[in-house]
From TrEMBL:
PANTHER family, per database record: ASPARTATE KINASE, ASPARTOKINASE
A Gene Ontology biological process term: 'de novo' L-methionine biosynthetic process
The name this protein goes by in its record: Aspartokinase
GO molecular function: aspartate kinase activity; ATP binding
All residue ranges annotated as the ACT domain in the record: 445-510
Keyword Heme in record: no
Annotated source species: Funneliformis geosporum
InterPro entries: AceGlu_kinase-like_sf, ACT-like_dom_sf, ACT_Aspartokinase, ACT_dom, Asp/Glu/Uridylate_kinase, Asp_kin_monofn, Asp_kinase, Aspartate_kinase_CS
Keywords (A to Z) from UniProt: ATP-binding, Kinase, Nucleotide-binding, Transferase
PROSITE patterns reported for this sequence: ACT, ASPARTOKINASE
UniProt key word Ubl conjugation: no
Reaction it catalyzes: L-aspartate + ATP = 4-phospho-L-aspartate + ADP
Length: 510
């Protein structure tokens, strides 16, 4: 898109201001384009130099969002003679065009955008057709396919900003990685290189407002396999580090991180502050708050992360912090502390002692769609051989284990639905008797230093027992900040609510 569509004096970035990176999630982009442009980007441009990182568009939910449908299109392309992938890509294209038409007023901007969206989708259909002919989609090709989602959404956002008089520029990070590295190179050195590379590319924007695809190309051994869904958070973190940003803002459809999923627990409380470890643990165990790899990158560069709500931009959100000094720095600057409130009050209200230890659990979370596998050894191998063979089988078929509990001849594992479970089970059956329980859920109570909260596990399990919730498996101890158990999925929301009520909302006076 060219500058000729812009007003004579467009709104630009002021190169004298410090950078902030704003990451927008799929559902926010699907529903709140107007708010993003008018209520967030425009006001921030008056005080900060803004860079946007965007995810692929979702409609109502992420489950039905563009990324999931691109994965579905890939599966369809691998079916001989199926043309369903064409229908899926056409639907994606139409939705993006429709969404653009509903917001963009300038006819030239709209025409050019429509042309680009249609071109991207046509290229994708050709790519999928080729995959169907050769009957293969490699992990790298799969990454390229899902990357189209971020491309389409960033094209729309760039055009929307231009339509509102903002001099925005689209940045596609497809080719940002200019080295061919293998899987073993996905380490801190790689992330440091990538942060610098992304920032170098983006810095070319001058005083334009960069809109950057959260998809960042061919990472060693595949983005989807090695970083996983939600990768745009990591991209925004790397950009924030590379630019030396003042803050990383992750904009969502919720006011921040709550003591439980606010869609499921009506009296869940917004947490003004939370530690990176707690935020990671919540994400691993079902609360899609922020990609767990994000925190380490930003925190080690001393950049605060703030989770904020697209439809409530003036809300304070949740700050993810690593140490007391960081909290003091950020909270006093951002006006979280006002009047008679002091840092110790803020920490106390959030369940932290001034030394950052915890007095009670921070949050509770549920991960649905869990399968439990119980294996009884046939005793033909020693216990260490038994365990080794199990993990080899799981690794071979891409099965990720969420929780595990073992004895010499028995192992129970809770896992999600990724990987080729059927083939893994055939291997496991060679080692012993295997039973599989489907439709289970993992309930996790999360809090810094949970291990040292005497009696907390007992209280968690007795509360579940009193509510008649049967516990299939327990795991405590592996993580200092998490006690988890597996329950039937049909009890998940009830269990979430009672644990929240008894262990989080009715806090003991300490
Ligand atoms: N503890 C929690 N705090 C905040 N949100 C949570 C929590 N657990 C689950 N969620 C859910 O995570 C979702 C994340 O926000 P959303 O804006 O939908 O994500 P995205 O950035 O992927 O578009 C919300 O719908 C919210 O209900
Ligand atoms: N679109 C990708 C990447 C992502 O980061 O998503 P979100 O920001 O909406 O969580 C996904 O669905 O995984």
């Amino acid at each position: 898109m060219t500058a000729m569509h812009l007003p004579v004096t467009p709104i630009t970035n002021n190169e004298k201001f410090p950078w902030i990176v704003q990451k927008f999630g799929g559902t926010s982009i699907g529903k709140y384009l107007e708010n993003i442009a008018n209520d967030i980007v425009k006001p921030y441009l008056e005080v900060r130099r803004v860079a946007l990182v965007c995810s692929a568009r979702s409609g109502e939910t992420k489950a039905k969002g563009t990324t999931n449908r691109l994965l579905e299109a890939s599966k369809e392309a691998l079916k001989k003679d199926s043309k369903n992938y064409v229908r899926i890509v056409d639907e994606i294209c139409q939705e993006h065009v429709k969404s653009s038409q509903s917001i963009i007023m300038n006819k030239e901007i709209l025409k050019e955008l429509e042309k680009q969206l249609i071109q991207d989708c046509l290229k994708l259909k050709n790519f999928l057709e080729a995959a169907q002919i050769i009957g293969e989609i490699t992990p790298r090709s799969q990454d390229s396919i899902i990357g189209v989602g971020e491309k389409l959404s960033c094209r729309i956002i760039t055009a929307v900003l231009q339509d509102k008089g903002i001099d925005a520029e689209f940045f596609n990070l497809d080719d940002v990685i200019d080295q061919r590295l293998d899987e073993n190179n996905l380490n801190q050195k790689f992330y440091d290189y990538l942060a610098k590379r992304i920032a170098d590319v983006v810095s070319k924007c001058g005083n334009r407002v960069p809109v950057i695809t959260g998809y960042f190309g061919q990472v060693p051994g595949s983005l989807l396999n090695n970083i996983g869904r939600g990768y745009t958070d990591l991209c925004s973190a790397l950009l924030a580090v590379g630019l030396g940003a003042k803050e990383l803002q992750v904009w969502k459809e919720v006011d921040g991180i709550f003591t439980a999923d606010p869609r499921k627990v009506s009296n869940a409380r917004l947490l003004p502050i939370i530690t990176p470890e707690e935020a990671s643990e919540l994400t691993y165990y079902g609360s899609e708050v922020i990609h767990p790899f994000t925190m380490e990158q930003v925190i080690r560069a001393n950049i605060p992360i703030r989770i904020k709500n697209v439809i409530n931009p003036s809300g304070k959100g949740t700050i993810i912090f690593s140490d007391i000094n960081e909290v003091i720095k950020v909270t006093s600057k951002k006006g979280l502390l006002s009047g008679s409130r002091c840092i110790s009050t803020l920490l106390h209200e959030n369940g932290y002692h001034v030394d950052m230890s915890r007095r009670h659990p921070t949050a509770v979370t549920i991960k649905n769609n869990i399968i439990v596998i119980n294996i009884h050894s046939n005793r033909k191998t020693m216990s260490h051989g038994f365990l080794a063979q199990i993990f080899i089988a799981l690794d071979t078929y891409g099965i990720i284990v969420d929780l595990i509990s073992t004895s010499e001849v028995h192992i129970s594992m809770a896992l999600g639905v990724e990987g080729d479970l059927e083939r893994a089970l055939k291997e496991l059956e060679k080692l012993g008797t295997v039973d599989v329980l489907k439709n289970m859920a993992i309930l996790s109570l999360v809090g810094k230093q949970m291990k040292s909260m005497v009696g907390i596990a007992g209280k968690m399990f007795s509360t579940l027992a009193a509510a008649n919730v049967n516990i299939e498996m327990i795991s405590q101890g592996a993580s200092e900040i998490n006690i988890s158990c597996v329950i039937d999925e049909y009890n998940a929301d009830k269990a979430l609510n009672i644990i929240h009520e008894h262990l989080i909302s009715n806090l003991p006076v300490l």
